[in-house]
Amino acid sequence: MDDDVGARHTPAEVDATFRTLRRVAVGYFVVFLLAVAAFPVLSLTSDWWSEARLVGGMSPGFLVAAFGLYLFFAVLGVAVARLMSAVEHRMLDDTRDDGFSAADEPPGDLP
Amino acid sequence: MTGPSALTLAAVLVLLTVVAVVMRPRGASTVDFYLAGQRVGIATNAWAICGDYFSAASFLGVAAAVYATGLDGAWYAVGFAAGFVPVLLFVAAPLRRFGEFSIPDFLGRRLGSEKVRLVAVGVVQLVILSYLVPQAVGSGITWELLVGSGILGLSPYATGILVSTAVVTGLVAFGGMRGTTWTQAVQFLLLLGALVWLAATVLGEGFHYGDAVSDLSTAPLVNPADDGVLATEQNALHPGDAAVFGQPGARYGGLGQFALIVTLAMGTAGLPHVMNRYFTSPTGAAARTTTVWVLCLAGLFYSLAVMLGTAAREIVPTAVADHPWLAELTVDGVLLVPEHALPVLGRIYGGDAGLGVVAAGALIAVMSTIAGLLLAAAASWGHDVYERHINPRATQRQAVLAGRITTLLTACAAACLGLALRPETFVAATPSIVATMVTWAFAVAGSALTPVFLLAIWWPRTTARGAVSGMLTGMAVAVGMLAAGLFADGGLLRDALVTPTLVAAPLAAAVTVLVSLRTTPPPDVEKSWLIMHGTAADRHAERLARLVVAENRRRRGARRTRRARG
Q: Of B2, B86, B104, B353, whose CB count within 10 A is highest?
């Protein structure tokens, strides 16, 4: 544990950030869960979902399982990562006084 | 084995060995051996996580599951990819910021309890072993198809298991996390290259994805039964109807689809070899960005795997006439072992060299995942048990040696279990034995570790007793349901039993919460919260990195000036 790094934020600042991030994470998780659960529900309730022919002769269900859900996960991932970083930046990093730009790329000695 | 196949395989092994030797740990410290000095960049770590995660189940298993069950097989791909969404939302950044060696180490320190650490080690070892065995099976299958003969009187299947396990164990024991990071990154790029090559070749030869799905969906789906004769798959969603390739129901009912995805999605956050990679990121923000990269790469990888499973179903029956070697691998144009789908496609379009490329890809997938699992086993045995309990005064060199010895022992155990299994005996019971066995590991991880892990990160009231009770409940329920599922006939009950996370994870979470509310949380929760959910650690690491970069630039400038003068 990096014990020496916790002193720069107050517990109240971190707690407020933590609660906001938790709301964001739970909200996006519900969206994720609904999207995943929609597939079996549509399979059971809609003939169109399994039998219609759309792009290239694939059914809507096959298109979603073959491409759509991966695209959805990627878009959701980009959106939530940007939002979480923005929340941390506004609620924690804007309060700091070391003059370091939070927009800088995280470091690493490898590409 | 033919010349091109042998050359391909030898070239891959030599490349990986060179990478492991060049990138071996520079020092003898445990931080270097287990965490690559915590300085792995975003792209490298994303590639390495993909190399770690895309195992035989992803490379051979997803295509095999789609080949055998059509759309229902694609659920494996969706579930494997979906797993990184919860990781991104709940785990990546706080886990890295807390900064430990392993999941047991994280839980032990966060909850201030050695008992939590030891129980977590037990669960982690069960997950690792459940995950290692299907990798061993995958390497046996690939060797059988690629080489076709054994050494020292062993069968090809047994030889494949022993050779791949021995090679990876050597690379891991020698290279540690630093060498393994780079070999996994290279392995992923080779694996993706093999998949892209095969997909491009198949499409270039005139394969039309949509038309194939449409054609395959006009007739009932058939697969070899126990007696070796083709049997029609029954539709689980509409009992009495035959299953069709392009529609759901060949394997799972409505609950089964959802339960499989939940099992795979929740399991990823509890996989020790994947989570350990997050400790190697320089900051929490870097860990989060790394996960976004992984989500994008996973989407590309799995959509190609689903397409190639479809291509194999469409192409193999018509190829039997022109390729006599397919006769012994098929019954009326349907493969006996679905995991042969990709290697067979490779051989149809690329001859022996094509088979070599795909089989090398499969072995790479197996080896990179085995490497990650062995490192995770080494970290939990070597750091959490040896350093903390057996020899607390161990020197860094002794601790690293303990890690290396445990990689050998874990690898031997997995190889022995893999040798005891024969994949063809499971064809009638599962769409892909490799993918199914990996699902068991996801089920245990998602039921026992993920709920406790998430609560420890996001609920400050979590206590050590609550965590221990939750982990034991999740593990017992998951293992019990999986065992009961082996004897269940089918239908809704079997669907629920073989993908137990939907039941076991909420139970584990409920037990953790109830017991935690009746016990006292650790005294330093506030301090843990500042570290996990604050960004001070990130800023500290960023500032250090900037100083190092500036110092390196200054030294390079000074050297250039000296050379110019001299």
A: B104
- pTM (2 d.p.): 0.84
Report d(CA B237, CA B243) in Å as an integer: 9
Lowest mean pLDDT across B1-10, B93-102, B135-144, B256-265: B1-10
Q: A56–B89: do the CB atoms touch at under 8 Å?
A: no
Residues from chain A contacting residue B538 (CB–CB below 8 Å): 106
| Residue B298 to chain A, least CA–CA distance (Å) | 8
Q: Is residue A101 part of a domain?
A: no
Question: Cβ A74–B75 below 8 Å, yes or no?
Answer: no
pLDDT in tens, B16-66: 677 666 666 555 555 556 555 566 778 888 888 898 888 777 788 889 999
List, as one string, the DSSP characters of B409-461: HHHHHHHHHHHH--GGGGTTT-S-HHHHHHHHHHHHIIIIIHHHHHHHHH-TT
pLDDT of residue B424: 58
**Gap between the Cα atoms of B26 and B28, Å rounded:** 7
Q: Which domain covers residue A40, as residue numbers? A: 12-94
Cα–Cα distance for residue pair B285/B287, rounded to 1 Å: 5
| Residues 6+ away with beta carbon under 8 Å from B70 | B216, B217, B221, B243, B244, B245, B246, B247, B250, B310, B313
Domain assignment present for residue A23? The answer is yes
Does A69 fall in a domain? Answer: yes
Does any domain span residue A4?
no
Contacts of B327 (CB under 8 A, 6+ apart): B320
A1 contacts in B (CB within 8 Å)? 98-100, 109, 528, 531
**What is the Cα–Cα distance from B312 to B315, expressed in whole angstroms?**
5
**Among the partner residues B43, B246, B529, nearest to A18 by beta-carbon distance:** B529
How many other C-beta atoms lie within 10 A of the C-beta of residue B197?
Answer: 17
For testing contact with chain A, the best of B216, B539, B552, B553 (most A CBs within 10 A)? B539
Higher per-residue pLDDT: A39 or B349 = B349
Q: Which of B26, B75, B89 to mutate to test the interface with A (most CBs of A within 10 A)?
A: B89
Give me the residue from A71, A100, A111 closest to B543, CB to CB. Answer: A100
B223 sits in which H/E element: strand B222-224
Residues of B numbered 105-164 whose beta carbons fall under 8 angstroms of chain A's beta carbons: which are they? Answer: 109
C-alpha angle B194-B335-B254 in degrees, rounded to nearest 5: 90
Q: How many domains does chain A have?
A: 1
